[in-house]
Design brief:
The complex is a heterodimer of chains A (655) and B (294). Chain A is an all-alpha fold and 655 residues long. Chain A contains 27 helices and two strands. Chain B folds into two domains: 157 residues, Rossmann fold, CATH 3.40.50.1980; 125 residues, Rossmann fold, CATH 3.40.50. The chains are: A mainly alpha (655), B alpha/beta (294).
């Protein structure tokens, strides 16, 4: 009993401090209005207080609690400390639904933005759970299919947003999560929705606690695993969907609140599920109050969701060293079927396809007015000089990202690992953002800043994870936190409507648009060199995934080999990001597809991944340049649209 | 009176077609590409229709008037000009703005570049800057002869709007574009719309300075800083379909002056990132609305 009380002390203290700080900020905010308008009767100030300020802060409390609870449930049921409400594609699905509806059937918006978003989240969750059901709801397959689906939805809505920037300005705001309110409708509807879900949560909390014993033990104690998972996932999805449809994406709270609860001492699931919402509510309440105070001073429009991520991610970074780590052996290994063919067959097929793709991409295009043409005649040289650098830069960066992804997935034993998750591409993007907004340099200046950003992120990650001998989870969490921060910054910029945000958005969506001859040549040379190094490290990559003990036993210097491999992956990511933006999709797809094709050992997997990644990128670049010509869709977005359904198909086929 | 704006902008488009013969021969030699809506529409008024412009697909959605001739080729988004199409158009001159500077190294080998600065942090009021840019553009293209009559026409149009409203009690107006049911962009100094309002003698009820493009993104509750009970809200299309029904449900909105009948008007789209033609269209739209019920 004493132990339990002591475990509750930490989280209680954290929630209390957050709520008190929030109240102080809130008092500073409304205090002047209250004393000022006390004497006068029907004042507009008072109307603002009653129907805007108070509903806004209530919404902050409710949304914070709901998101944190949702995150805690996900982390418990998926047994994955990186899971949060966005992992199952809930917000991406909602976002896609909103984008599609506002573009193609705007009248439906009249029926209610919430309903549209809710349907989108539900559809996304249903697809993910459907895939999960085939695999007995293993946490791994849920997270993986959720992640792939959210990448796909995110890519598609980004393309639509990208092609209709002016019209969809409102979606930037929604995407960045603004809490501004003009009535009590949203907070009141959130209250009863959350209440319903909370009751269901209370009913399943006991069986949920038993999950900590492991799958077979809890099943032996009478827990019906599949049914329990469905109920808990449904609760968590519903919570996140309610908040997302009401106020937009405020994703970071769902990751940081349960983490805070755990770090401050909450051990048992009951404690986690009880304290996380309180901490989440306090966090968002504090953030929003401070934000409103600050906004009063600056007079700028700042979406709360984006700003919480800006402040929340450094907090998570700072807390990382205290996080408990456990090493994970690659779980999928046991389930993998033996390769049905010789490794040479898939590699040859991939190489031939890449060759055909390159030729098509070079010689087929669209003329003025939009007609399809095979290149010849007067403009042959001029147009080849434009196309070739794009094609070869796409080829080189696709290959590099895929190899980097293979290394990261092998090294961390986490299937979610990809170059973007490492945060390197986020760092490069941040460098470009700084360059664009601070000094507005030319193209080469942006390059210099991107390299600076990528290298500093790499350094931070390597330094901060040094003490933990580069434990996989810590590196991944650090990368996610950084990516969230960059996303948030770009979100803030986009929703203020600053035209420079368009430049940044293009950069982030992975366009080969500005690549020219010298850049493409440099890129190809770097790719050749780095991939050769990676192939040379195949022995380390075969043995390290087996765990620290076997690796040390065969004489691999653990810390040094990890440092070298992370550094290599980082360099490849930075080089690829510099020319074609943070294209996380290829880095995720390439290695997966290679493994699905039966290439399991390090060397064939990396070769296969490099070919698949290169082919994907070339195809994506070609499609993006021609399909809606003269308008262009960034290759990174297209590659997600091609790659993700492909991966989903392979996942569903596999037993 | 509506006809006057129409006829003005019609004139702009027709100028290119109905030009004296010797001038047209010269035009045929100057192939101009416009990478900015404002510059492209100014080209029409200078009697030099472009061979290609960026973002042509959305012209009718955001600029509307003057209409682009059928012969103009779409060369893609202004930030991602399709160089393959651009080269095949064989342009002589390409018009750009500082926002497209990263494209300069790629554009320079293709044609002569004319870079005009209108929306920059040091510009100040946009309308005078747009007029100056029109003169500069005409001088560079050798079309000074068209510039002065065009500017005189537009000034006369503003003056006519001012006189139409002069005899009436014109309320101060707030200019917004609704983003969704909770957010809006509000237009103020030093923007193009604000300058045009000043020119036609209408007071902008939103007094806070905005960013240098002339707009601010706000939560709708911030509109409560406007205390004048007569203030009019003018919203530009497209208004998302769920905005007005949702606002009616908000007690806060009900307390604002704009919720009363006749204090909110929705007008067709007008381009804020424009030049003289866009200011003229804006002035005409606002004058029509204010005249109707003043």
């Amino acid at each position: 009993m004493k132990a339990i009380r002591r475990e509750n002390l930490g989280p209680a203290l954290v929630s209390l401090v957050l709520l008190c700080a929030g109240c102080m900020a809130f008092w500073l905010l409304v205090g002047p209005t209250l004393s000022e308008s006390a004497g006068q009767g029907n004042d507009i100030q008072r109307m603002v207080l009653y129907y805007s300020t108070l509903p806004r802060l209530t919404t902050a409390l409710l949304a914070g609690a709901a998101l944190a609870l949702s995150g805690a449930l996900f982390q418990q049921v998926l047994r994955n400390p990186l899971a949060d409400p966005t992992t199952l594609g809930v917000s991406a699905g909602a976002n896609l639904a909103l984008v599609v509806v506002s573009l193609f059937i705007p009248d439906l918006l009249g029926a209610g933005r919430d309903i549209v978003a809710l349907l989108g989240s539900a559809a996304a969750a249903a697809i993910v759970v459907g895939f999960g059901a085939r695999r007995g709801f293993s946490p791994y397959s849920l997270v993986l299919s959720g992640l792939v689906l959210s990448l796909w939805c995110g890519g598609l809505s980004a393309i639509l947003t990208y092609l209709n920037q002016r019209y969809l300005a409102s979606l930037f705001i929604w995407g960045a999560g603004s809490l501004a309110q003009q009535s009590w409708v949203i907070p009141l509807s959130l209250i009863w929705k959350m209440g319903t879900v909370a009751i269901v949560c209370a009913l399943v909390i006991r069986p949920l606690s038993l999950l900590d014993l492991g799958e077979s033990s809890s099943a032996a104690l009478g827990v019906r695993l599949a049914r329990l998972r469905i109920v808990v996932v449904a609760c968590a999805v519903a919570l996140a969907a309610f908040v997302t449809s009401a106020v937009g994406v405020i994703g970071f709270i769902g990751l940081v609140a349960p983490t805070l609860a755990r770090l401050s001492g909450a051990r048992r699931p009951v404690q986690l599920i009880f304290w996380s919402p309180l901490i989440g509510a306090g966090l968002l309440f504090l953030a929003d109050s401070v934000l409103q105070l600050a906004a009063g001073g600056f007079g700028d429009f700042l979406p709360t969701g984006a700003v919480t991520a800006i402040f929340g991610s450094p907090l998570l970074l700072a807390l990382l060293p205290r996080l408990k780590i456990r090493h994970r052996i690659q779980q999928a290994a046991a389930r993998r079927r033996p390769p049905a063919w010789n490794t040479k067959v898939p590699v040859t097929i991939a190489a031939a396809s890449v060759l055909v793709l390159v030729i098509v991409a070079l010689f087929v295009g669209r003329g003025p007015g939009g007609s399809w043409t095979v290149l010849s005649g007067e403009f042959l040289d001029d147009i080849l000089a434009i196309r070739a650098p794009k094609v070869f830069a796409a080829l080189a960066s696709g290959a590099m990202l895929a190899v980097a992804g293979s290394i990261l997935q092998r090294l961390t034993g986490n299937e979610m690992a990809s170059p973007e998750v490492l945060g390197i591409s986020a760092g490069a993007t941040f460098g470009v953002a700084v360059a664009l907004f601070a000094i507005a340099p030319g193209f080469s200046g942006q390059f210099a800043f991107a390299v600076g950003g990528a290298i500093s992120v790499l350094t931070v990650i390597l330094l901060s994870s040094r003490r933990s001998t580069f434990a996989p989870e810590r590196v991944l969490l650090a990368g996610i936190a950084l990516s969230a921060m960059v996303d948030a910054i770009v979100g803030v910029l986009s929703s203020t409507g600053d035209p420079r945000a368009v430049l940044l958005m293009r950069w982030m969506s992975g366009s080969t648009y500005l690549v020219d001859g010298p850049i493409a040549t440099a890129e190809a040379a770097i790719a050749a060199a780095l991939i050769a190094v990676a192939l040379a490290a195949r022995r380390w990559l075969d043995i390290l995934p087996l765990g620290p003990a076997p690796s040390a036993a065969v004489g691999i210097p653990l810390a040094r080999s990890r440092l070298a491999l992370f550094g290599l992956a980082g360099l490849m990511t930075a080089a690829a990001t510099l020319t074609v933006g943070p294209l996380s999709f290829v880095g995720l797809m390439g290695p997966h597809l290679a493994r699905e094709a039966g290439l399991t050992r390090a060397l064939p997997q990396m070769i296969g991944a490099a070919l698949i990644g290169a082919g994907l990128m070339v195809a994506a670049d070609f499609v993006g340049r021609t399909i809606v010509a003269p308008y262009q869709i960034p290759a990174g977005l297209v590659s997600a649209l091609i790659g993700a359904p492909c991966l989903m198909f392979l996942l569903s086929r596999r037993r | 009176m509506k006809i006057s704006r129409r006829s003005f902008l019609h004139h702009a488009a027709a100028a290119a077609v109905s030009m004296p013969k010797p001038l047209r021969a010269e035009v045929a030699r100057q192939r101009v590409v416009g990478l900015d809506y404002g510059l492209s529409s100014t080209l029409l008024s200078l009697g030099l229709p472009p061979v290609g412009i960026s973002d042509l697909a959305d012209w009718d959605k955001w600029v509307v008037e003057p209409a682009m001739p059928q012969s103009v080729v779409d060369i893609g988004s202004s930030h991602e000009v399709d160089f393959e199409v651009l080269i095949q158009l064989k342009p002589d001159i390409i018009l750009t703005t500082p926002y497209l500077d990263e494209l300069l190294p790629r554009l320079q080998p293709i044609a002569k570049i004319l870079r005009l600065e209108i929306f920059t942090p040091d510009t100040g009021p946009i309308l005078p800057a747009a007029i100056a840019a029109t003169r500069k553009l005409a001088a560079e293209l050798g079309h000074e002869a068209e510039a002065e009559p065009f500017l005189a026409r537009s000034d006369a149009f503003f003056e006519r709007c001012r006189r139409r409203l002069a005899g009436r009690t014109v309320p101060p107006v707030v200019l917004v574009s609704f983003m969704d049911a909770r957010h809006a962009r509000v237009y103020s100094a030093p923007g193009l719309f604000h300058n045009a309002l000043e020119r036609i003698g209408v007071r902008n009820a939103w007094t806070r300075q905005s960013n240098y493009w002339g707009f601010d993104t706000i939560g709708i509750e911030e509109l409560s800083v406007i205390t004048d009970p007569n203030a009019r809200l003018i919203a530009f299309d497209p208004v998302p379909p769920d905005v007005l029904p949702k606002l009616v449900d908000s007690p806060l909105w009900q307390a604002l002056p704009f919720s009363r009948p006749g204090h909110l008007s929705v007008v067709p789209p007008a381009l804020m990132f424009g030049m003289v033609n866009e200011a003229v269209r804006f002035a005409g739209l606002v004058t029509d609305v204010l005249e109707q019920d003043a």
